[in-house]
Amino acid sequence: MVVPFVDSVIPAGLLNTATTPTNNVATTGSLVTFNYLYHKPGHDAYPLVLVTDISTQYLRGMNLHYLTFPVIKNLIYPAPGRSVCNSPQFTYQYLKSKGYINRGQKGAFRQYKVSGISRLRKLDCAAIVNALAISRSFDPNEIEAIRKTVREQIRRIVNFQAAPTGEMPI
What we know:
The chain is an alpha+beta fold. The chain has four helices and five strands, in the order E-E-E-H-H-E-E-H-H. It has a five-stranded antiparallel β-sheet, with no helix packed on it. Helix 1 packs across helix 3. The protein is elongated, with a radius of gyration of 24 Å.
């Protein structure tokens, strides 16, 4: 399927072809990181973006730095065996239909001026998906065991045994 955007590859000058492999071209669904010159104070100067579209003036997508791990995992890996990595179907309309824009994640969807982007690097989205897939969550029994241990340690500190009069504590 053809990407519906006229300039679906990185505009000339953003990608250093002398030091970057030729397959390192960002398209819809690519995971990229870059330095952003026009960031506002308090905003991300080094975004990690899952690209929805690229034009001659703007790069748009979800900045993963503004999302939690479970949201990132569900965004990139919506179903077993399915990933949005490098998928031409990963568009703003996809995000909107899945509720990512309307459910308080609006701040994660960003538009960046191409003229402010430097040192753009395409990352291996599959590696991120695999890392998130093996991310471990605590078993409820483990959490309860941790709570018991913490309670016991607090009890020992609070109920500290004082040394008998005349003896020096060690």
